[in-house]
Amino acid sequence: MNPFKYGMVVSGKDFCGRKALLKQIGNHIISSQRVVVLGERRVGKTSTVYEAVNQRKTLRLLYVDLLGIKSVDGMCRRILKAIIVQEQKTDWFEKIFKTLAHLRPSISVDPITSLPTVSFDRSIELEADSIPEVFNLIGSLGKKQKLVVVFDEFQDILNLANAHEALALLRGEIQFQGEISFIFVGSIRHKMEEIFTKHDSPFFKSAITLTVDSLPHKEFSKFLKSKFSQGDREVDDEVLSKAFQIAENIPGDIQQLCGAIWEITAEKEMISVDKFKSAMQLIFSREQKSYENYINLLTNIQLKVLTAVAKEGGKQVFSVAFMKPSGFTNPSTVRRAVNRLLQLNILFESSGKYRFVNPFFRAWILYR
Ligand SMILES: Nc1ncnc2c1ncn2[C@@H]1O[C@H](COP(=O)(O)OP(=O)(O)OP(=O)(O)O)[C@@H](O)[C@H]1O
Ligand SMILES: [Mg+2]
User: Fold this and answer.
1) Cα–Cα distances in angstroms (integers) from residue 203 to residues 195, 206, 212, 234, in the given order
2) In the predicted model, what is the mean pLDDT of the chain?
3) Is any ligand 1 atom within 6 A of the Cβ of residue 189?
4) How far is the CA of 255 from the centre of ligand 1 (A)?
5) How far away, in angstroms, is 213 Cα from ligand 1 center?
């Protein structure tokens, strides 16, 4: 079996390093400190928070993913679903079901995936005044056992039409839950900053910020080498540093690339850098459909700008040096295209530089 795991939460023996950060998060949890966890895509934010909670057996986790929420109704339903799934095997289950009876909750197991699915009456629209009720329920969970509530992709609250009102209500409720630890995880830095560092935001200065960075080369290389050796394969440092470089130091992408290398090699093989071509082609063949979907969303100008970022790197994209080789003369044309690429989540901005969210997409653009 392929020992490399990507696109999922990793824990236990699949979780590498981050000792100090885990300890820090653990201590904040114990003291019910509110914590913001920031980091780029696929760097390991969710895994780190899970691992910090899992390492302390007395903690109970309520994990709520807010990715893509569009309304208060959507947010409340996600939280309620998380509570029901979490409590389905406890003696509180009936009580919770009764409390939520007006929403006609039903729980079933999907026959294909075996995953529990929870649904509520669709004709009822939960409004902002449901937020206190939802937090009452969270509060009662917190009375049983030390509870950690994790809101993942928290920045997506800003998608709501009444985001400010929702944030104010959330903040008010959270303030009353002194015994419960709250962790807000986010990957879009400027949006998280808008929530936690803007003066007029209800969450202004309400939490300590921790950052999840790339894993240190040495520690992660050792971890990856041991995974290769589980499959009776050997890699040298040159291969690993090239993998780090192609995957732009993002742990999830490094694992994906190593997984592809693992698949195209055999037991007892000493892996060298000449394997990268086939490994990249394997990744491209699996991701091609989604790359093409992205390309179909772009105008010619946007695609030209994207190709230029892939070729030249995303620094100073409004300078003549960047624009001239691609035939652009007007910085506002480039700006509009970049804005669209940011909006589509193809590029992101980090320290004044535009980068591809997916480094393999960048490589594919250059290759095709
Ligand atoms: N500590 C770690 N040890 C080993 N691999 C890791 C570690 N952290 C992250 N990874 C790799 O990164 C992948 C993504 O991890 P995770 O989902 O926790 O990241 P994330 O930052 O929450 O991502 P997203 O931005 O998609 O929400 C994992 O599947 C794994 O391949
Ligand atoms: Mg995550």
Assistant:
1) 6, 5, 21, 49
2) 91
3) no
4) 9
5) 11
Cα distances (angstroms) measured from residue 207 to each of 35, 54, 293, 365: 5, 22, 38, 40
Q: Give the CA distances from residue 248 to residues 29, 236, 240, 354, in Å, rounded to whole numbers and listed in that order.
A: 31, 19, 12, 13
Ligand 2 center from residue 321 Cα (angstroms): 37
Any idea which ligand is nearest the CA of 42?
A: 1
* CA separation for the pair 129, 165 (Å, rounded): 11
Verdict on whether the full-model pTM lies above 0.70 = yes
List of residues 6+ apart from 136 with CB closer than 8 A: none
Confidence category of residue 84, pLDDT binned at 50, 70, 90:
confident
Give the angle 169-175-178 at the CA atoms, nearest 5°.
145
User: Domain 215-296 adopts which CATH fold?
Assistant: Helicase, Ruva Protein; domain 3 (1.10.8)
- Is ligand 1 within 6 A of the CB of residue 105? no
Q: Which letter does DSSP use for residue 261 in this model? A: H
* 18-211 CATH: 3.40.50.300
Domain limits, CATH 1.10.8, in the chain: 215-296
Three-state secondary-structure class, residue 168: helix
pLDDT of residue 39: 94
Q: Is 255 in the pocket of ligand 1 (CB under 6 A)?
A: yes
Atom of ligand 1 nearest to the CA of 256: 31
Class of domain 298-368: mainly alpha
Distance 46 CA to ligand 1 centre (A): 7
Please state the atom number of ligand 1 nearest to the C-alpha of residue 254: 31
